[in-house]
Design a protein that fits this description.
Strand content: 15-25%
Radius of gyration: 13 Å
Structural class: alpha+beta
Shape: globular
Distance between the termini: 25 Å
Helix content: 25-40%
Strand order of the largest sheet: 1-2
Number of helices: 3
Largest sheet: 2 strands, antiparallel
Oligomer: single chain
Order of helices and strands: HEEHH
């Protein structure tokens, strides 16, 4: 989580983020962005999308990639 926070989140969002809580396997953060899902798709290899439902707008995009 430390690596993800400092080498991805802080680099990508810089001053548009707030960290509220961190432990070995969780982050609670606030990110100011127009579309967080578009941002996450840009870095799909860093996120776990396994729990997205078939109704989620990105479901087809995730299957295509």
């Amino acid at each position: 989580m430390y690596d993800f926070w400092y080498n991805h989140i802080k680099c990508k969002y810089r001053d548009r983020i707030k960290l509220y809580y961190i432990n070995t396997d969780s982050l609670i953060i606030e990110i100011e962005t127009k579309d967080i899902y578009t941002n996450m798709i840009e870095d799909m290899n860093l996120y776990d999308f396994n729990n997205f439902s078939k109704e989620h707008p990105l479901f087809e995009k995730l299957l295509a990639d």
